[in-house]
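Notebook entry, structure prediction.
Reason for the run: the old model in the group folder had no record of what sequence produced it. Starting over properly, with the input documented here first.
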Amino acid sequence: MNKKLNKKFQVIYWILAILLLIVVLFGLKDDHQAVWNLANLTETDDGALHSPYIELKQGTYQLHIQYHANEEAQASAMIGEELLGEVSLLPSETSFDEMIQIPYDTDLFRIIVKSAQVDRITLQGSVLFNYDTIFAALLLLLLELFVYILITGKWWAQQSKEKKITLTVMSLTVIITSLPFMRSQLFGAWDSWAHIARIQGISDALAIGQFPTIIFPQNCNGFGQIGALYPLLFLYPAGMLHRLGISLTACLNFGFIMVNIATAWVMYLSVKSILKSDYAAGFAAVLYCLAPYRILNLYCRHALGELLAMIFIPLIIAGIYHLFAGDAKRYWHYLVIGYTGVIQSHIFTMVLVVWVSLFFGICYLKKLIIEKRLLCLLKTIGITIVFNLWYIVPYFFFYFDGVSNEVLRSDYTSKQTSLKELIAGAHFTGDSGMGMISLIGVACIITCMVGFVINRSKRDEVKNFMLVNFLGACLNIWMVTTLFPWKPFMQNPFIAFLLEMIQFPSRFLSVAVPMLIMSLTFVLTLQSQKNKKRAGIYLVFIVVNLACIMLLFMYAFTDMGGRGSQDGAARADFREYYPKDGGEQCCVNDQYFQYSYDTVITDYSKNTKDLSFTYVSSLKQDELDLPLMYYRGYQAKLLDQTGKKVGMLPVSKGAEARVRVTLTQTQIPMKVVVSYGTPWYFAVTYVISLVAIVIVAAYYYRKRIRT
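New structure, fully documented this time:
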């Protein structure tokens, strides 16, 4: 085909593109239907029947109830504890139809029926093009424009055949692995509810102007819960999309698709910076996307944090290579971006990354000192810390401030895998009672071993590094199995603390898998230089990997387990983030606790942003415990009758880890507004990190322009 595609081709392309757009628009029509039979309803002590919570968009829905009643009954439509409407069910009738209006997006809608035997409840709503449909169509249109510009532009025409094939295969791999997420539903997975709750929490926080997000204001039955103990940087786009009206399901599905794209692209860049080959980089990217452990995290666990961290691990390995053996001056930023990406993705994985970095550091200690690369290493570490100061300081501040972080720790050694299970990919059962598939490519290990032996006479920096990298991968795989002697190491309190925090030995595969794939790619590249049929060699490993993940792929398409949260994302809680004196049982009663009736409380109100009340007290000092979970940073402003701020009241931890406000004596009604305010020392770290990022980015950009 000529460099400039003829008009006929362009017309055909846009006809097909528009047809596909129409299919998406009408194929994703929001035809929402919920059906509950008697078996789906929960009966309370007073005999009322409660439907499960359901997520609904703002709009009009038709409610149909089939019932039997001996007396007049009532049916109520609720959003949380808010009554939308109540109707009577007459004993002379057996069915009821009504149109109900949902005033805003919610995931706390339910129906309550009293004094009637319910046979069936049906809720139906249909909107031609809802926000999710428009969002999907917009993404498709942008993709079509991108492909059109790409294939008709000069850049694509100037690329080699090798690069075109590589990018095409990578794109197809990303599409295949993303297919389960290109739906309006979210299949059941272990951690999906947690990430949905975080997206909802970010959305709620952004709505009240809290950025960066510290507190999820609606979590824990509206008591609010700390959000800063989990890296949220890469969840902000999803939270913003949800704020614009995109459903939680669509936001999470979109997030997983973007993870797949980033995973392939980062592995491609990392390997190409070392091996200088498009085929090799593309092969590594495809194999990494299809790696069974990654697919397990993607489909079965929805382990978004680990998946995000796994994006950056190849970049860290490439950065370590360039630091110790390659062009450190040109590629030092790989380590900064890689470490920052992992810190902002998953803290547990960061512990593993530090371990891997120490392993390489020990192996290359002599070279690091002799070749005077230590300064570059210190520069990288320093810049990484300053870049992430805005997250690190709040994290450790709250981590050591009395949260129940120990609840997730577990007996690490009891979860080790036998070598047979690891090789065969057998199922083993964790505390959750669900089977977890652990697969690792034995063929990859054997191929690497044979390859390094065959090419033992060839000595260069790349081979030496890849050999060390391969040994590191094998060491991490060994650590997963029962063959590794962890018990002596567990005698050290610090090591025991880290391992219990990591929870599962299988998490060592998150660093072992990319290390093994990069070494395998190097070995196959060496062999392909002798054998021109390298495409065939690469293809064999890709096909084997596809066969390994086929069951996981089928699971993703057949197991439609719903959204994963039964209590509403906005009301979800994370038990590890409760204050040590609090817990789920402390968030049931959403009324304030008053210790003296000599203080009169009036005009009490609570919303997502703040809690306010007016009081008069004859006591010199009184205390009021509010339905807010206590974390450092809450403040109580004292306002006069004109609304002018006249002072601040002391805030401390009260009974059941609630926010306690100490009231002072006043005969004039005074208003108190309680809200969370970012501490000044957090704000300082925000400024430091932002300034550092701008300065380093400007310096790097200027340097690249000059060179």
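Summary: Residues 424-440, 559-567 have pLDDT under 50 and may be disordered.
The old model has been moved to the deprecated folder.
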